[in-house]
Amino acid sequence: MANTETIFLWEGLNKRGARVKGETPADSEISARADLRRNGINVLKIRKKPKPLFSTKKKIKPVDVAYFLRQMTTMLSSGVPLVQAFDIVGRGHDNPAMSELIMDLKGQVEGGETFAAALSKHPKYFDDLVINLVEAGEQSGTLETLLDKIATYKEKTESLKAKIKKAMFYPAAVIVVAIAVTAILLIFVVPQFEALFVGFGADLPAFTRMVVNLSSFAQSWWWVVLGLVVLGVFLFRQIHLRSPRFRRSIDILVLKIPAVGPILRKAAIARFARTLSTMFAAGVPLVDALRSVAGATGNALYGEATERMREETAAGAQLQWSMRNVGIFPNMVVQMVAIGEESGSLDAMLAKVADFYEEEVDNAVDSLSSLLEPLIMVVLGVLIGGLVIAMYLPIFMLGQVI
Questions:
Q1: What is the dihedral of CA 306, 307, 311, 313, to 10 degrees?
Q2: Taking burial as the number of CB atoms within 10 A of a residue's CB, which of 61, 146, 184, 397 is the most buried?
Q3: Percent of the chain with pLDDT over 90
Q4: Cβ count within 10 A of residue 50
């Protein structure tokens, strides 16, 4: 049963007869009146709080989900019952959308659903890995322990994603700003110089003429260029969303990009190791764990390799041999897995691999940022400086005309 809690606005008299008003959450108007009576309020007016015309509700981000899982772990480890933990965490969350989701989970659990079953109703926010581990925790009576493992896994994963976004955001932002500044110069500034050049009575330098022609094109067709860019981005996102073959091609292509590709490759290995370590430590059989790991690597090439490893492992091969056969894992990773299998500590070895590659990604992102800063300055200098030189070149040659 989903929770349908609503905010009610009310006016009434308190125990001293003074007129008071406020708002209260409740499942229905009857519940709201009953809650107010218990608090000594004689209700005179009550109505549902109207919803805003334009919703300003924040979206639920993966970070919110990770924070929720960590809070639930803390509540359960402190001895708070599950339903009460939902209530405490849900009412104290800063994101109204996440708070609504948590209260919905609470309502389903109160209605007789298991925690895992309630989570499965929201696949957009809780993947199969989380649902399967929560279900295993409920069945084995170790929900608190497994929630801690899930929370740690989510926190590590989101931290890794944040590092990747950090590596991509800075250069992308600078490139967008550079393109915007160049467009403004071509559309608004260059035409002013062009009007000045008309009275020079001499041919313009080839470089200046090229920039002037480019400016004329930008003034006439900027809306077409902008429309094509927007259309291109839209089509790319739609094809990427709907075509597995296209996603696979893009995933393979980005791994070949200098500087960026190695970071993405290390991130995929880190996610592979972290996910498999978490599931194996939770007691999930290796073959079943690999099925979930395949979708958690974040790259189609590593996802397909994991599926092949799962098939070979199901046929009786050791994990280390199947990793060697796919040929995309570094020798150090294969050796660590081999040691883990032989010593019976595969989950611990995989966790060490994940820690190592997460640190490698962190260092690589810092190095890439240091490398890109001078490169970006060169690009900006060529774009903006080139336009400025093109505009002032005829002025420098003005003496020859006079």
A1: 20
A2: 146
A3: 12
A4: 8
Q: Which residues, 6 or more positions from 3, have their beta carbon under 8 angstroms from its beta carbon?
A: 27, 103, 104, 106, 107, 108, 110
Two tokens, residue 96: 């109204």
Q: Give SS3 for 266.
A: helix
Categorize the per-residue pLDDT at 56 as very low, low, confident or very high, splitting at 50, 70 and 90: low
Average pLDDT over every residue of 272-281? 88
Question: Hey, is 25 helix, strand or coil?
Answer: strand
Query: Distance between CA atoms of 217 and 215, rounded to whole angstroms?
Result: 5
Q: Extract the tokens encoding 375.
A: 């490169």
Residue 300 reports pLDDT greater than 60: yes
Q: Does the structure show a pLDDT above 70 at 33? A: yes
Three-class DSSP category at 21: strand
d(CA 292, CA 282): 13
Mean pLDDT of 249-257: 88
- What pTM was estimated for this model as a whole? 0.70
295 secondary structure, DSSP code? T
Burial of 262 (0-12, 13-18, 19+ CB in 10 A): middle
Say if CB 391 and CB 211 are below 8 A apart.
yes
* 267 and 160 Cβ atoms separated by less than 8 Å: yes
Helix (H) / strand (E) element for 5: namely none
Q: Is the dihedral of CA 329, 335, 336, 339 positive or negative?
A: positive
Contact 134, 143 (CB under 8 A): yes
